[in-house]
Amino acid sequence: KDISALITENHNLLNKLPGVSNLHTDRIVEICRGYGVSAKITGAGGGGVVIGIINHDCENLEDLIKSLKTAGYQVLSSLKTGVPGVEIVEEDEETDLSS
């Protein structure tokens, strides 16, 4: 599974627990998903924060932010790293990872 699928799965599991989510966080996740962004609740419980994973080539980021703000939600930050994320390197007999 890729990170987007895992985030969606994690949100769905957390959403089944009592007192973890609320109507607002559910709506934020729904808005994000409408733009193809995987999102999940996070924090200490009670549904105060949602994080979304956005691909570096997301063409509709500004529209997503506008939709969230129009719905009455605050967008704390959007961060573009400009570099690829974590990679899985399969080690074989010829690979020397010590250098």
Low-confidence stretches: none
> How many helical elements?
3
Q: Biggest sheet, strands in spatial order?
A: 1-2
Characterize the main sheet: 2 strands, antiparallel
Structural commentary:
There is one protein chain. It is built from 3 helices and 2 strands. It is α+β, with helices and mostly antiparallel strands and 99 residues long. Strands 1-2 form a two-stranded antiparallel sheet. The protein starts with a helix and ends in a 29-residue tail after the last helix. The model has no long low-confidence stretch (mean pLDDT 81).
Tags for this model:
alpha+beta; 99 residues; 2 strands; 35% helix
Brief digest:
The protein has 99 residues and is an alpha+beta fold.
Record the SSE blueprint:
Blueprint: H1 3-15, H2 23-34, E1 38-42, E2 49-53, H3 61-70
Antiparallel strand pairs: 1-2
